[in-house]
Amino acid sequence: MFDGTQRRIVSMWFPRLPSDRVLRTCPTDRPFALTLRAENTDRIYCLNAMAEARGLHRGMPFAQARAFCSDLGHAPADPVADARMLAVLRRWATRYCPWVGRDGRDGLALDITGSAHLAGGEQAMLDDMRGRLARAGFAVRLGLGDSPGAAWALARHGDGRGGERAAPGQGARALAPLPVAALRLDEATSIGLQRLGLRRIGDLVATPRAPLARRFGPNLLTRLDQALGRQPESIAPEPDPPSYVTRLTLPEPIGLTADVMAGTERLLRALCDRLKAQEAGVRVLCLTLRRVDQASRQVELRLAAAMRDPARILPLFARGVDEVEAGFGIDQLRLEATQVEPLPVAQIGRMQVAQDRLENLITRIGTRIGLENIQRFLPADSHIPERSFLIAPAAWSQPEAGWSASLPRPLRLFAPEPLVARGSTPPARLRWRRMALDVTRAIGPERIAPEWWLDDPQWRTGLRDYWRIDTRQGRRLWMFHTPQNPGWFVQGEFA
Hints:
single chain, Dna Ligase, domain 1, Alpha-Beta Plaits, four-stranded antiparallel sheet, six-stranded antiparallel sheet
């Protein structure tokens, strides 16, 4: 608050924020509602003005709403996306003042004390807010008063036709005709006051305070004093997210790889210090080198795991920096962490050192061929041999425990290759891939049934009886027989 200046608060209320967020990207000219499942029933979570005009309301069962309005459009609600949209609106509202905080799930509170004159006055500022939000597709109700409570009451219970602004020092007069619910009271307290005939804030102000406190508790008088400005109430703005950008401007241009790497090391140490303070690690780094001719060259480094150790990260920049054409010289270096992940402090042990070495190796190879091309096998929950594993990029997956198979599986698997053989037991001699093999030992059978809930052409022959075959020539094969459609096949080979 400035000395000698009356505190002024603006309350922004978005009564249809969830539906406005959806309809901004896919507008419609018919009733529309968002649904959310609660108590085993789909209920209306938010709706547009046209649906409200049809008599629908929030909390109404969706099946009942469809019976009232057959052409009702609908989509599932996403409270997480609504919260992100409110965060975007909060950042946008800082154009009017630096002190902006959230007010519930659908509102903002702005402390415009001393900043209204920058927009041409309070009324001009409110008109500008309303106009910009309307053009962006958001319905908004505004309230302006001497306290957050007064602004909240005027935004949600004002007439919406210019009466939402209380002149400085006139908060009590502006709030007097509003209902007691405008004091942010719970439903039970509001109903209890109305039963006593205290329906307006003005009626409450004229009533002795002691009986009200004895009957309804201290919260009622606290809310009343906050709305009238007798008791202070703060606005808690959200802190800005940490910035992971460092910049170095040079007095003289440089062009040698060693000089660029020295500047990068200086930036990297400062950036890693910020990451350590936030217990975060970087996955993607972007080094921008600005030349004296104002052209820029970028070196992107994608890491196999979140890191914040400058000694491990710096050598990985060497190849990219060496390929940059410096031209007439580089006069500015800018290093930005474009992708950051949580990296809490952990005890360093022998296994952690081995894991760090593996991640460094994956990163070095990935800078040449791409991190997506370095893959690892992961176990999958399936008893079908060819479905018992997944292939995932090593940089975005973690090694898991080995396969839990009761019997050994071959190191190599391939598509089933037919053999010429008869009977349900392995033959004494067989010919596979133009090789004549003599069977010395056969272990089995292991019967594997197909997954009936999946239609796999490879398993339309039905059951399979698998055998482990040792041959005199040294080949160790994995074969199976299909009793429902007699035939022999080779599908794998043991090491």
